[in-house]
Design brief:
The structure holds two protein chains of two kinds. Chain A is built from eleven helices and ten strands. Chain A is of the alpha+beta class. In chain A, helix 2 crosses helix 10, helix 8 runs antiparallel to helix 9 and helix 10 packs across helix 11. Chain A is globular and about 65 Å long. The N and C termini of chain A lie far apart (52 Å). Chain B is mainly α. In chain B, a hairpin with a 2-residue loop joins strand 1 and strand 2. Chain B starts with 11 loop residues before the first strand and ends with a helix. Classes of the chains: A alpha+beta, B mainly alpha. At the A-B interface, helix 4, strand 6, strand 7 and helix 7 of A face helix 5 of B.
Amino acid sequence: MFHDLFSSKSKAKVVKPTPIALSTRVRLARNLSEYPFPGRAKSAQKKKVLSMCIDALTGVDEMKNGTVVEVDDLSELDRQILVEKHLISPELSQAEESSGLFLSNDRSCSVMVNEEDHLRIQVLGNGLDFSSVWNVADCLDSHIESKLNYAFDSKLGFLTACPTNLGTGLRASVMMHLPGLVMSKNMDKVINAVNLLGIAVRGLFGEGSDASGSIFQISNQQTLGESESAIIERLKATLDNIVEQESMAREKLMEDDGMRLVDKISRSLGALKCCYMIQSAEAMDHLSLVRLAADFGIIPERFRGLADRLFIEIQPGHVQLSAGQAIEPGQRDHLRAEFIRKEFSRLPQLNLDAIS
Amino acid sequence: MKCHHCESQATVHLTQIINGQMHKMDLCESCAQEKGVTNPENLSIGNLLDHSVIEAEKSVQGMVCESCGTSHQDFKKGGRLGCQACYHVFRPVLEPLLDGMHAGIEHLGKVPNRVEVEPAKVEEGPSIEEQCKQIKEELHLAVEAENYEKAAELRDLLKKLEAESASLT
């Protein structure tokens, strides 16, 4: 019942998680010049675009031995799991016909076909790392461009369905874990300040999602009037600043009331170790404190990686994937708790020397 | 500098921060009067910009992209364009929109390999003869105004240019 795509976990690259910045993503929006954008295209045109794009991608080096999925062939639950893995957008998961996903063998590159634009090229990397992620995306884009005719205007750049993506079509974003700024109630200030710089802050699952787990997706809003490197430079400068603010907020929390913070962390570990039913939002908040504890050195570093993995695996779609079938929310909360308890069954003593 | 609304010389220069973005507008005397830029207290460039947006909207009202069938109304409602040609059809309304939305209105990023890049025009400056002629005029004026310091500078420059011209021929 689940797509084969989910049976081959081992293909994904093994990464070493870093504090504060979880992952870096670059997305390029592109369209074919001869066809209307997906929102206006007729059924036959979309079909043609899908087959042209898949043909083109099949011959591209970065996508060698990759997987092609047509969204039509996926169940509701399969689509939900792909959204939770950040491999497709919520918009593509609702697509009715002739939409597809081309995924590279190591899962770091994905191309969505017939989403809002004909092509959404996406490259994912570990931690805060724009240089290599951008280079891969740039090469992948050039390779695709050598096979397809992009809609391009010398004055306006790459033409996109929505003018907010016009020009470079570039959305660069970093997933950041900012519990210090959230707990010290400074996050709103940060959001307002970066908004003024043309930088957007969203929740873990993008547009409209909440900030459970203190995880935020921070990205450029403007795509025209600056080169790709200037956009990335500017975003990077802001992110470096946020990393500094977050580190300072954490230090201050520990200095001002370290006992309360350690108590909070301990209670979260307790809840994860002993819960019997738990909803994903609550679990996310506890996992956020686990990640923070690992950053402080109170618990071993491997728990940072565990928290990152569980942020995804405790989502409703993934819980049902592990159950092997679609199940009701109540049952899900029970199964989620069982799954989390197992992961946290062997928890070492807290190393409080790390913070003294 | 030309007026934002007509071709006349702009004499009124306005700068205002709206939503954290700096907007500048230059107007000539008569347009400034017409737009009511007489009372700085109640002045808002936002209103003036809106006016230009309204004008632009009027020009595309009822227009439909022949290539994909997207109407101006569709674009206004959904915020999305239908195809490459739409960018040409709705350009008058798009330009003011893009100005507020992005860091600039011209693409400065990657260019696909297949697009032939137009060779940049080499701006040819005035020839040496033209420069000499202009300096001679300035020199004449400087002497008349008894500005001998400037006249000396100009004389040296003239000598240098004449020597350069001689070496070229």
